[in-house]
Amino acid sequence: MPVAALLPFLGPVSELAKGILDKIWPPQADPNLKMQAQHEIEMVLQQRENALVNATQEIIVAEMTQGDNYTKRARPTLVYAGLLFIFLVHVGFPIAAFYSGKPTPSLILPQEFWWAWGSVVGIWSLGRTFERKGIGGKITEAITGK
To answer: Whole-prediction pTM value?
Structure first.
């Protein structure tokens, strides 16, 4: 990974290392040792950050290059499953209750369902729109999985 891509992370890592040392470092200690310790903490935190970024990239590449097409179709599956749940709760169960003569069950999809499902559908639809219009890029690829 190029160093330029890591620049946004260097500020927070440096501040975290400085904050840790400010809390635990004795005030009468040698300032050069403190700077050296801060540098070592920054290096350890930066290595951890690099490992997380690399692991995330490897997971995405592995998912997109595997032969199983279902992984690539997971977003549409979430959309269709959400539509099925909405249909069952708001159409299927009330119709079944009407014809069976039993009271309509009071099922309500939780607010978390609507937020999560709406977010997935919105982002996926936006990505597919960009893809169909020929607007490419890394963001479109991340959204659509292609």
So the answer is: 0.43
Q: Write the DSSP string, 51-91.
A: HHHHHHHHHHHHHHHSS-HHHHTHHHHHHHHHHHHHHIIII
**Residue type for position 143:** I
Encode pLDDT of 62-81 as tens digits: 766 766 666 666 667 888 88
Say how far apart CA 20 and CA 31 lie, in whole Å.
15
Estimate to the nearest angstrom the gap between the alpha carbon of 143 and the chain centroid: 11
Please state the domain extents for the chain. 3-65, 69-144
Tokens encoding 81: 């499953």
As given in the structure block, the two tokens for residue 140 are 């479109």
